Amino acid sequence: MNILITGAKGFLGKNLVENLKNIRDGKNCTRPNIHIEKIYEYDIDSIPEQLDDYCREADFVFNLAGINRPKDPEEFKKGNFSFANRLLDTLRKYNNTCPVMLSSSVQAALEGRFGTSEYGLSKKAAEDLFFEYAKKNWYKSFGVSFPKPGW
């Protein structure tokens, strides 16, 4: 199995990458039925052409990429929605219907104090995009919402 992790240098991404490497290298034997061949790490400083290569070869995608502390609120949309759109377009370009796990946030519910949150709005837009794409293209999409620590 070839696995693509976007946001590979973030907190979740780097820990996931290390765990997957341990599984691949036989150091973690808790998942004996998972056979990992390649782990593709993609992050904000990666070369754009790498996304093409990785999307062509991926059997599973963990989309952990996102922006949560920008200088300008417009960066929320660029980092959370626009990248998600680019990722899905690239998978579609190669007719790759592999499962995609989207990391999101409880703020995407847009409830309570998060009702008008730019971050929440961008995460909600990305969720909607993924689930609509999944319906149209008959592939599996998983959304996982993460609360902030201490919530």
Automatic annotation (TrEMBL):
It holds the Pfam family Epimerase. It comes from the Bacteria. Residues 3-137 form the NAD-dependent epimerase/dehydratase domain. SUPFAM superfamilies: NAD(P)-binding Rossmann-fold domains. Gene3D superfamilies: NAD(P)-binding Rossmann-like Domain (3.40.50.720). PANTHER family: BIFUNCTIONAL POLYMYXIN RESISTANCE PROTEIN ARNA, NAD(P)-BINDING DOMAIN-CONTAINING PROTEIN. This is Capsular polysaccharide biosynthesis protein Cps4K. It comes from Hungatella hathewayi DSM 13479. The gene is cps4K.
